[in-house]
Amino acid sequence: MDYSKTVSDATIESLGACLHNTSGSVPLHERFRALFTLKAVGDERAINVVAECLQNDPSALLKHELAYVLGQIRNPVALPKLESVLRNVNEDPMVRHEAAEAIGAISDPSSIPILAEFQSNPAEHIAVRETCEIAKAKIEWDNSPEGIAQLKAGKAAPTERETIEAAAKAFGDSADDYEPASSDGNDAPFPTIDPAPPSALSDKPALESTATLRAELLNVKLPLFERYRAMFGLRNAAVQAGMKAGRDGGEEEEKEAVFALAAGFADKSALFRHEIAYVFGQLSTPTSIPSLITVLRDDNEEDMVRHEAAEALGSIATDDVMTALEEFVGDGPRAKTAPQVVRESCEVAIDMAEYERSQELQYANGLSGSTEIEA
């Protein structure tokens, strides 16, 4: 639904007050919900509210998420704000990295020069440099003959229907025999703009295709962009396998795809490791829980990786996940020594987990009390 046509200026102002915490008493997780409600609205009013908070808020975690949302809205009007954050060397590198990734998500060719500038600066923070490398490659790919052809064909990313049909084909079934992964009318299994288009799954047997993608994922001689493509290809392989779990090796295939992704946690690049955790958050598979908890509890791991592991765990929401997250908040045994961004991530993740375990219909529920929108 296009909320921008049904949400009043007064409601936008109310969401902005929640996001900006003008009262001084809004919990961080409620601010996140307001943010993702504004993402659903997605018009210039919402962009301006989000961008203003990005310039002024003290929380690196929230600012990182604000930049992410601006990229996902994919409106070039946000580019000057994002470029300003990227150029601010006094800003937290995690926030600047997300600003660069958001620029890549918007994918305007006019952004290539600034991304190239920061990619080539040896004095720049490595996570920022690497993100600019990937974002620049994504924009170039999106505007290449291959990328344009896939976009015109509606295949810039596999739709849910295509994923179902691929799984059905493996068994000679009808795609109509398969339940869709979601029932909200959104064809994409992951309604996100990812940092790189997924590598296409081959016609080879699933385990063989997974082995090929794993080799590409872990090949440090390949450009990061190509390794990211393998990463998102493995994500899609896990989705396909999950659809046929319990039938002819589906569970084994899903585990192999997840284990292949988990092997990426040994990579030297913190950016790469953080993206592995992000993908696990998309998959929300219990198979990834042990590796994510290990990352979250590792005091020697980079904050951006631990933060992403926490949020990924929040999307899974099992009892052991809740126990691990609660270690980092309130009077938890790790709360006093954990970095602020990790503590805050666990707070938000617990709210996400409670949502997953609840009967709530929508996480981004900032409009739930509004009479402007009919259910």
Automatic annotation (TrEMBL):
ARM-type repeats, residues: 287-320
Q: Which PROSITE patterns match?
A: ARM_REPEAT (PS50176), HEAT_REPEAT (PS50077)
Give the EC class as a word: oxidoreductase
Q: Where in the cell is it found?
A: Cytoplasm; Nucleus
InterPro entries tied to this protein: ARM-like, ARM-type_fold, Armadillo, Deoxyhypusine_hydroxylase, HEAT_type_2, PBS_lyase_HEAT
State the function annotated in the UniProt record. Answer: Catalyzes the hydroxylation of the N(6)-(4-aminobutyl)-L-lysine intermediate produced by deoxyhypusine synthase/DHPS on a critical lysine of the eukaryotic translation initiation factor 5A/eIF-5A. This is the second step of the post-translational modification of that lysine into an unusual amino acid residue named hypusine. Hypusination is unique to mature eIF-5A factor and is essential for its function.
Name of the featured protein: Deoxyhypusine hydroxylase
Taxonomic lineage of the native organism: Eukaryota, Fungi, Dikarya, Basidiomycota, Agaricomycotina
Per the record, the gene is LIA1
